[in-house]
Amino acid sequence: MIDVKMSMDGGETATSTTTTSTGSSSKPFTNGKQNNDLWKSILADVSSNSRARQLSKRNIILLGDEGSGKSSLIARLQRKKYNPDEQPLGTGLEYTYLDVKEEDSEDTVGRLGVYTLDGDITHADLLKFVCSEEQLHQVAFLICLDFSKPWTIMTCLQKWLAVIESQIENVKGTETLANLNDSLKLYVQKFGEEPEEDEEGDDANTSFLPLDQGVLTNNLGVPIIVVLTKCDCMASLRKDYELQGQHFDFIQMKVREVCMAYGAALVYQSRTEANTDRLYRYILHRAYNFPLNDAPDIAHPEGTFIPSAWDTQAKIDVLKEGLKSIDPEDAFQDAIRAPVTKTHHEEIIEVQDEQDFLRQQQGRLGRSAASLVSSLSPEGKQMPSSTSSHRAIPNLQTKRASLADLTTKLTATSATSTTTTTTSNAAEQPLPTSPSPSPPKSTGSPTTPKTSAPQHDVLQNFFNSLLQSTPQPQGGK
Description:
This protein is of the alpha/beta class.
């Protein structure tokens, strides 16, 4: 046992002796131990840093009317392609998330929850499950407004702000809401300025300038971001609805005034991803208090970016200079009017039953035959009914033929009598003694012979007796 121990010790001793004797051979052993300690320290630092970078739970609540671009906006923020055919319409309250990545390494360090409320305002009661008093400090609101329908912007903005206010009303008077109000006010006061701390460095005793007029007059205690989607349709709005640059300035002016009152940010968003990255970074800034490195931008109409607490009434008044034919004090609906749409009412035609239609046509044919016979009677007098009208027609034709013969004879007799009377009157007149006879004076109307009057009376009486006589039905004994 001693030998074994000695051999084991000897091995160790030999090894240590060799190390001591060689002198330089002691470095590998020492470096190996130091390398192990170095790797352990690196792993410990990474582990501690990862725990330090563990983000707290935060949620974004997305609001907006149906068709305002909520789903396409979330797809862009997730770096995904949006296909409306593959994206089913949501109902109620949907959930998804955004990966929170480090800007330098692009490593995912957390997930930001996104709750999307259906465009129907009747589903607003579902927000109570994510806006309770315990969850309110974790929430930020994002409102989508459709810029392709500019006449609806202000109405929709006020509607969804009222929804947020109704949720805040549920926790009114609580200590949680009071702390959130103070926190939002402090954020607005600290924005863009370096506060002067006292000698002890206590932030609580730091003094800030008071808020400007019109800033944060409606303090709800929660971050709000207003996103105008589809802002790349300005060209089509100019062409189709004759909107000009002053109309777009007026829209921005009114929206900025509302955002300033609620301490909200304003971001223009288009189908291109020009402003998407900036919006993503600003969402992380408001949710996790990441540093804000993006400067405000009001020079590009389709890429406007106005962070919360940056705007003032003096900056907004600059837009009034571009309003030529619009009064800045006009109501939004008076300056941005909705187009007049013609409503087409569809007329519903019920198909009539076939048998009813045939009976109706049969009755019309019977009435047409009766009216044809009655039209032959003088002074609107009715002829016999349709049952005997076909029997009276032959007799009527016979009488008409006799009437034609009698008319011919009476006309010839009248013409002969008129000629004889004219000849006899001419024979009784003396011849003129003057060599140049004067032309006979025209009386303006021909002289009607007196002998023709009785003949005309006879002809008239005959016609009347013929038409007034009722034809007797044949074989009607």
